[in-house]
Structures are given as structure tokens and as C-alpha cells.
Amino acid sequence: MSADPATTAGPHGPGLKRDAISAAGIVFLVLAAASPLIGLTGAVPAAMVVGNGLGAPLAYAVVGVIVLVFAVGFVAMSRHVTNAGALYAYVGRGLGARMGLGAAGVALWSYTAIQASVYGFFGVVGAATLDSWTGLKLPWWVLTVGLIVLVQVFGYLHIELGARVLAVLMILEWGTMLVLGLVILAKGGTGEGLGVSQVFSVESLLAGAPGVALVFGFASMFGFESSAIYGEEARNPERSVPRATYLSIILITAFFLFTSWTLIVGHGPAGAVAAAGKALESGDPAAYVFDAGGTYLGSWAPHAMSVFVITSMFAAALAFHNGISRYLFTLGRDGVLPRGLAAVHPRTRAPHVASVTQSVSILVLITPFIVAGADPVATLFFWGSGVAVVGIVTLYALTSAAAFRYFRSHPAQDSRLWHTRIAPLLSVFTMLGALALVLKNIDTLVGAATGPTIVLLLTVPVAFLLGFAAYTAARRRLDPAARAGLVDELT
Length: 491
Description:
The protein has 21 helices and 2 strands.
């Protein structure tokens, strides 16, 4: 079958649209997935109160450096593997097909879990905002289902259209927070000074429970790795994916470092931790940010910020929807899952069957919580976030190990020692250390008793084993090339 030159072609016909998105478009998709505004309003106050207090900004900087080291091997692999399966394809190329499919199981489950957490949080925040503005009271799940439908509509459309919408939302969200930070600095905060010595010191970084702060940092940072998911649709992926990856990590790290520091200045170094604690106790951690906005920008700011939190959740849900759909598309194309998942829309070239499948799966996942009348924040949001952090940090470790092994076995592919040996091996150890920190503090992150927490943690290795076992079930359907490299582009 001849392949459409404007699309990526697999052994069963045309696929995703090529040259559909630029490096800048990938950056906006990545920033939407990382959703730093949600992390700022949800995780930063907790990182300060139960973590290391005024040292929280430096904890985010440390996480940023760790992630940048990981990105070195990740980017080196992206130059040789252009595939919508991203981490699954990288692990498969370096550690073998079975390990790759195990990674695919973890990736699908982790991204679905974090998407469920976003949907649950959106339902609660959206319902509360609608009530406060109009007096209309709706169950949280009505708003959530509405968002799923909206995201599905965009799942049918051109990827570049979604990127443009996300670009507008990201500019508004980031612009408002950066303006707030600059105004706080210009006004000198509460008059206590800029708190440079209190915030940017080793003593502050190591104060309290720095491990907990690092865990919240990791929970706020992931999503940047989705840059590789769009490699097949990118213009000049060998350049655009690396650029988008590094730029996204730097921007996300700088955003958390700058905004968390300026919020400390805005509340005053002497009272910032108490203000964060008060916001947490009220059940509305976003108040830590919104109160500063009202004080320094005016009464309009909290209202605008509440809207931006809602739009950032839409952006995150859409970004994860796109990513999961492309994982399903790749697994269908490779013959691991039903081939029908590899179908693309004849006009938009979006993986529309995989897109609908993803929407149905998330509805199935959240339905028991709706029927049981569960608190979506205490369950969907915290449980999903905890599972996702464990799963994705595990994927980072596997990807680094795969990069090290791949380049060790293929030294002619890339002779740069730092990029192919030192950084990937260093990242294996730092990610394993991060995983140990996450597991040690998982009760704080998940907010559940020991029994439910253990059950939640076990879902990650179960997802890996299901993917690992899928190779045996699917290998008869794979042609020799796909069996050797998981996908046609890896052979």
C-alpha cells in the first residue's frame, strides 16, 4: 500500500500527519501537560508546610536539575527513535520488546491516573466556581463529563489547532503569574525584603523535610517527556523534539522557582509558611496564591486566577488525552492491541478511534467513584496523583537504563560520552533515589491509609506485568520487523 507522503505510514496504511506541529507547538502541549498553575496552587503550599518551608523554591530547582540530567539521554534517544509511543519505544529499543511493553503498560496507567485526577479536581473546582458566580449547584461529575466531551471534540481535530488553543491559555496563565511576581518585587512585598538569604541557602533547602518537598516537586514537574510523543507529527523532529524538551524543562523549573519565591516575598518571609498553612487548613490551598493576587494586582486577580486554574485543567486534560491516544494508536499499529486503534481520521489525521477509546476508558474509570459518592479530591485527585508519580518516575529510570544500554551496544550511533553513558547512568541512580523518596513519603502524597496506599502502589507493577505479558500474547500477530524493534521505525 502506498503511503500518503504527508502522513507517517505504518505497515497497515497511512498514519499520523507529518510536519503538523512546530517545536513551539510542542512546547505549549508539554507546558499544558505539566500544568504548572495547578502545581503552584496545589503543591507549593503543601511543599512549604509539610516539606522544607522557605526552601521550597530551591527544592523545585533541584528537581529541575535532576530532570535536565535525565533529558540528556532522553533527547539522545529521540534523535534515533521517532515514535508516538515515546518512552515505551525508547525502553523497547534499549531493553527489549518485553520491557518496552511493560513500560507501555505503566505509561498508559500512569497517564490515565493523572488524567483522572485532573478530571476529578476540575469537577470540584468548576462546580464551586459556578455556584459562587451564578448560584447554580451542579454535582461535580456533571462538569467532569462535560469536560470529557469537550476534550473529545478536540481529540478529533488537527493537533495544531489544539496546540494553538493551548498556546493562548498558557500565555494568559503564565503572563498573569509572572506579572504578579514582578509587581510583588517592584513593591518590595510586605517590606521585609526579598528574602534572598532565607530562601536561597543550603540551610533552607535542607530544613524540615526536604524529601517531602522534592516529592511535591516531582509531582509538579512531570509531563515534559510528552515532547517525544509528537515526534511523528513534528517538523524536523530530530531538532524540534530536543529543543522542545530542554526549553520546556527550563521554563517549568524557572516558573516554579520564580513564582514560589515571589509569593514568599508577597506574604513576607516571616509569615509565608503560616499563610500557606492557613490556606491548606481552609481546604483551599489556591487561596495562598489568590490572596497575593488580590493584594498586589487588585480584586479582579483572584477571579481571573480561578478561571485560569480551570482552563489549565482543561489544557492538562487535553494534553494527556492526546498523549494517551497516541500510545494507543502506536500499540494498535504494532499489533499489540487491536489494529483498529491505528485508524486515523481521513481529514484531520487524528487517531480518532484511539481518541474515543481513551474517552470511554476514563469514563469507565471514574464511574465507580460517581456511583459510590466518593469525594473526588480525596480519591481521584490524590490517589491518581500518587499512582502517576510512582509510575512516571519508574518510567524515567527505565528510559535512562535503556538509553545507556542502547548506546553502549551501538557506540557508532553517538560518540558523545556525557550524552550516551555518563548522564543516562547518573540519571538511573538519581531516578531510583527519587523513587525511594516518593515511596517513603507516599502516604503524604496520596492522603490515604496504609491499606489503600499499598493497593494503589501495587497497580503500577501490575500494569508493568500486564504489558510484559502482552508481548507473548501478541508476538504471533507481529511481523519479524515489528517483533524485533516494536515498531517499524525502530528497525
